[in-house]
Design goal:
Layout lengths: L2 H18 L8 E5 L5 H9 L4 E4 L2 H9 L7 E4 L17 E5 L2 H14 L3 E7 L15 H10 L3 E8 L11 H17 L9 E3 L6 H6 L4 E4 L1 H4 L10
Length: about 240
């Protein structure tokens, strides 16, 4: 099965899951997770209809931007972002999905101020409390959202989460449901940008259909589109 067929298969699965949940398939954005993919593979995916690419590593993002590999698509940063690499990301991507601390949030705001831009962000929540995962603890989300709403050079668009590796169909639905409730509660408390908060990013290749059933508006899919990832260093 070639890349175009993979993309169509994933889109069909998205449509089926959305309709089963009583939702319009158009509500769901497919973000192609392009970690360790080559410039040519990214270009081929965009030519086949991908409109959002998600990058995990700053070094790969920078290289793909220099090669103009994302032409024709929006770019999201979906991996862990260190504060010392904020300058390489802010103003260069449409959305930073992985903001998980006040320190990082303030660094993004400061860099956006220098550039004269307003950076769209999502707040990443460690919904299962896993020590190995990024994301802010659930109890710290209200303060982080309040700060995001107060800063002038960021725009809070919603929330993101990476639940545990799926143990099978339905295993992560409780986490997705909890994220949906957090999204609703957080948006309800925002005084100025409730209308800006329109993105709930959750669900990956192994569980995106369950995420859609629980309210995801964006799913991040890599393996189901591109197959098993090549070894690091093989890209380009």
């Amino acid at each position: 099965m070639d890349l175009m067929q993979h993309i169509q298969t994933v889109r069909t699965r998205i449509e089926t899951a959305a309709l089963a949940a009583g939702r319009a398939p158009e509500e769901i954005t497919l973000c192609a997770a392009t970690k360790v993919q080559t410039d040519d593979t990214i270009r081929a995916a965009i030519a086949a209809g991908i409109r959002v690419c998600g990058e995990n590593r700053v070094q790969e993002l920078t290289a793909h931007l220099a090669a103009d590999a994302y032409a024709g698509a929006r770019v999201h940063f979906i991996g862990h972002l260190q504060t010392n690499k904020v300058k390489q990301v802010v103003g260069k991507v449409d959305l930073i999905q992985s903001v998980d601390s006040q320190r990082l949030l303030r660094a993004i705001d400061a860099q956006a101020d220098k550039l004269g831009v307003r950076q769209d962000i999502l707040l990443e929540v460690n919904i299962a409390g896993e020590e190995s995962k990024g994301g802010c603890p659930v109890e710290e989300l209200p303060a982080l959202a309040e700060l995001a709403g107060a800063l002038e050079h960021v725009r809070l668009r919603g929330l993101m989460a990476i639940p545990p590796i799926s143990g099978g169909p339905g295993a992560n639905r409780p986490y997705f449901a909890a994220m949906r409730q957090l999204f609703v509660d957080t948006r309800g408390k925002m005084s100025d940008n409730q209308n800006d908060m329109d993105c709930l990013s959750m669900g990956m290749s192994g569980d995106f259909e369950d995420a859609i059933r629980e309210g995801a508006t964006l799913v991040r899919v890599g393996t189901a589109l591109f197959g098993p990832r090549p070894p690091m260093g093989a890209a380009r």
